[in-house]
Design brief:
This protein has 453 residues and is an alpha+beta fold. It has one domain: Cytochrome p450, CATH 1.10.630.10. It is built from 16 helices and 13 strands. The longest helix has 32 residues. The protein is globular and about 65 Å long. The N terminus and C terminus are likely disordered.
Length: 453
């Protein structure tokens, strides 16, 4: 049974029930978008269980803000408790609030300004290693750059490219496994010696070793670093003791995954869109050239790169990395006209919501100018690239600054053209990433004089 089936009108307070085929579908993204046609809420059967899908941005606001005390992070985030402890993205209640208060200063807007030089210094070797007419795996390049920025700025770690690639692959493998376990919530399957489970265990070992090395270096040289890891090592838990290594490891892993994957995927989609639209690319180059010139990008340039920021916002809308997110009701709660009993698993899709024609005119068109202040804006709560409420992403300012820096740094030096025969499709896994994004790098300094670049 799929979401294409005809359903009778929904009686007040009743939810339509659909057979759940999401883990098996090839067109998962189309499926979650079609679900929006069944009204503000719909239930999906998962064997003996069910998942309630929220399609209404107004009802989602209730869940994430006004009624948030009735929900925890839910099924997807349960499966992300894979490194010991309860890191910030999955912790609950007072523990989450206390941990967020401790970590927030390191990711505050003002503190992020201090990371600018580190961001630029980290990105420069990657971009300088490209050669004119190189065919690049753009998604992988963006992932390595974004991961490098997080590790350098927040962990004072700068692994060489081979080790960085191994860490990147391990994060990807472990989180893919966690997502699949959330989509097929049968605990016995997680213990079977399947190829996927074996790969996840190997990747977990590699990742744990890398992060243990970062912690060990900070313990051996406590005065050498002033970063987020140093801060975590001074945090006290609810008993008054310093965090155990597995707690610190969990926080580092969560920040590494969240801070690398979403920013990198956003940038990959951005350069894909620019490759399809030379006029938008020209405007980006023109802005970067006029604002930054031939010097190094600095924090003073960020507010002036307004078109660059609109490009990023539009990429976050059309290609939102999050295709499913979850919550679970921990007490009986009424959302709109619907009663959700305690234990109800809730899901929503920012990706599908951001492509809803009722919320965004001409939603499949990549139009950065829709974010100009004189243009009509979407209703409150319809555009939530970093979430909303008390669980809003703690690193939103870091991520946005990082994205502007990388986009501008690359655009100042290169054009990225689609490789011949490329077929780019969205793949919903940890995030909605390109199936394959191979692009040819053209050095702008080698362009023929007088040619628009």
């Amino acid at each position: 049974m799929t979401a294409d089936m005809h359903l009778p009108p929904i009686a007040p307070g009743k939810l339509p029930l659909l057979g759940h085929t999401l883990p098996l579908l090839k067109d998962r993204l189309g499926y979650v978008q079609r679900l929006r046609g069944y009204g503000p809420m719909v239930r999906l059967a998962i064997g003996p269980k069910s998942m309630t899908v929220i399609n209404s941005h107004e009802l989602l606001q209730e869940v994430l803000t006004r009624q948030s005390q009735h929900f925890n992070k839910g099924l997807l985030f349960d499966k992300l408790k894979i490194f010991g402890g309860d890191p910030l993205p999955v912790s609950e209640g007072k523990k989450h609030l206390n941990r967020r208060r401790v970590m927030q200063p390191a990711l505050h807007r003002e503190q992020v300004k201090g990371y600018m030089d580190t961001m630029v210094d980290t990105v420069e070797p990657f971009v300088s290693s490209w050669h004119d007419q190189d065919t690049l795996d753009v998604c992988n390049e963006m992932q390595l750059m974004a991961q490098g920025v997080v590790m350098s700025a927040l962990f004072s770690s700068n692994p060489e490219r081979g080790s960085a690639q191994e860490i990147l692959h391990s994060v990807d493998t472990v989180f893919k496994a966690a997502l699949m376990h959330a989509m097929v919530p049968i605990s016995a399957l997680e213990r079977l010696p399947t190829p996927g489970n074996r790969r996840a265990r190997v990747a977990n070992t590699v990742l744990s070793k890398a992060i243990t090395g970062i912690i060990a270096d900070h313990r051996a040289n406590p005065d050498a670093h002033d970063d987020l890891v140093s801060l975590l090592m001074t945090v006290q838990d609810e008993t008054g003791n310093n965090l155990a290594d597995d707690e610190v490891m969990g926080e580092i892993t969560a920040l590494l995954a969240a801070g690398s994957e979403t920013t990198a995927v956003t940038l990959a989609w951005l350069f894909h869109e620019l490759g399809q639209n030379p006029e938008l690319e020209r405007r980006l180059h023109e802005e970067v050239d006029s604002v930054v010139g031939e010097g190094q990008i600095g924090i003073e340039h960020i507010p002036q790169l307004a078109f660059t920021r609109r490009l990023i916002d539009e990429t976050l809308r059309l290609h939102n990395p999050a295709w499913i997110l979850t919550r679970r009701a921990i007490s009986d709660v009424r959302i709109g006209e619907f009663d959700l009993p305690a234990g109800t698993d809730v899901m929503w899709s920012p990706y599908a919501m951001h492509r809803d024609a009722d919320l965004f005119p001409d939603p499949l068109r990549f139009d950065p100018d829709r974010w100009l202040p004189e243009r009509p804006q979407p209703p409150r709560g319809a555009f939530i690239p970093f979430g909303v409420g008390k669980r809003m992403c703690i690193g939103d300012q870091f991520s946005l600054t990082e994205a502007v820096v990388i986009a501008a740094y690359v655009a100042a030096r290169w054009r990225l053209r689609p490789a011949p025969g490329s077929d780019v499709r969205p793949i919903p896994e940890i995030t909605v990433h390109p199936s394959s994004l191979r692009m040819v790098a053209e050095n702008r300094q080698h362009a023929v004089a007088g040619t628009a670049v």
